[in-house]
Amino acid sequence: MRQRRNVLLIVVDQWRADFVPALGADFLRTPNLDRLCREGVTFRNHVTTAVPCGPARASLLTGLYLMNHRAVQNTVPLDARHTNLGKQLRLLGYDPALIGYTTTTPDPRSSGPKDPRFTTLGDLMDGFRSVGAFEPNMDGYFGWLAHQGYTLPPKREDIWLPEGEDAVPGATNRPCRIPAELSDSTFFTEKALTYLKGKGEKPWFLHLGYYRPHPPFIAPAPYNTMYDPADMPAPIRRERWEEEAAQHPMLRHYLRGIRQGSFFHGAGGVATGLDEFAIRQMRATYAGLMTEIDDCLGRVFSYLEETGQWDDTTIIFTSDHGEQLGDHWLLGKVGYFDESFRIPLVVKGAGAEHRAGEIDTAFTESVDVMPTILEWLGGEAPRSVDGRSLLPVIAGEKPADWRDVLHYEYDFRDVHYSKPEGELGLSMDESSLCVVQDADYKYVHFAALPPLFFDLARDPNQFENLAENPDYAALVRDYAQKALSLRLRHAERTLTHFRATPQGLEERKPDPAPVATRAAAE
């Protein structure tokens, strides 16, 4: 008899990879995440293939690179023709549940301009059943607060102001005005437990999303003082932000334009105005929000154990994207630096074929999550998907033709809250970049701006652009060719394996190119 197979996909928001204890963050206390790492496989070289939230989640849940799904920015629609994890799970007999959000703007051809979904940053992706919605506009959470008897302030977001009438918005160790038992992390956890307790013996899939450690960077008590700013890693940045800005025109735009108010509710001033102590305090709060999530996950894990479902459940822990946290004088998820793109991925599998307690160094990407889940449940990823199943890697049998570079993209066209095009003199279709990098080098190609090239062994923090250095000209050429070859291999291919023949329609089974063939092509 086949083992019951449940899947818990945990998607946190804005959690960067170097804030995982198994990957070196020994200052962070996350016993439940630590347990997942002990019982599963932790991936050291994992990236989201796009930022910010909307594009990142589109790639995670469709398995497509940004260049193929084209939901290139928050607020940009996702084409209805694309399938996604939820729709594919339905073909396998699952009713995929979703708690949290996907930041998906619907295809306008399926509705009309008066649809209220077009007045928000994003809505829920088709194919999933919402059992704990946060979108649109966090109404689900604020309604839950009111239902719990909490009196919302006139401006409801003021729950994330620091406690005390004399408090000044900004980096602080004061608690927010909402208590931990009513925080958004508790809200998601309560929704998860309600869903799980209603499932009985039926196999299930649950996308459990958490809003944290996304800003505003303020934590409820006791998490607000759980970490000492002095114990936090110092920011990685040049002495002055103007030195960073000299690296590239796009970087200069963001350094001039990112405001503290997007990260600390009610604050003013630009992000470059944060001194080192403020950044360390922000990081201490960020860590506190992580431990709060970990405590919440402990409640979910305990329920799975108590009901005998722990061993039947594959658990995947990941994030949509990272966070600059003051590195390179930046806040948020922008540009091309690793802090925005490197994210955690931990897979605790159900079954003896999965390794436990190991850290894998294979290059993995967010587009791999969808095909991994589908294969584990007995399905198959559609031909259009850009990612690959991680099951062989998890079992310790990485295929010989596994990717040899990491790839990710960023589109910086104008949206209502950010307008780089005019300052940079670009059209919206020129406002994009792609990255290929391995352990040695990193190449950043812009559609209409100068490229960047970094020698990671000599300059791991990516301060020195070598794209115009004649000593690196051959390497720049080689990595530019890698980027071009990758894009050619992943060009949209939904129907390219079909052929019309004299005998009728033929469907070819695509096989990965042999290693020797790939090496010759590159």
TrEMBL record:
Region (Disordered): 501-522
Pfam families: Sulfatase
Leader peptide range in chain numbering: none
Transmembrane segments: none
Source organism superkingdom: Bacteria
Gene3D superfamilies: 6.10.250.3360, Alkaline Phosphatase, subunit A
Any one GO MF annotation of this record: sulfuric ester hydrolase activity
NCBIfam families, sorted: HdlasePehA
Protein name in the entry: Arylsulfatase A
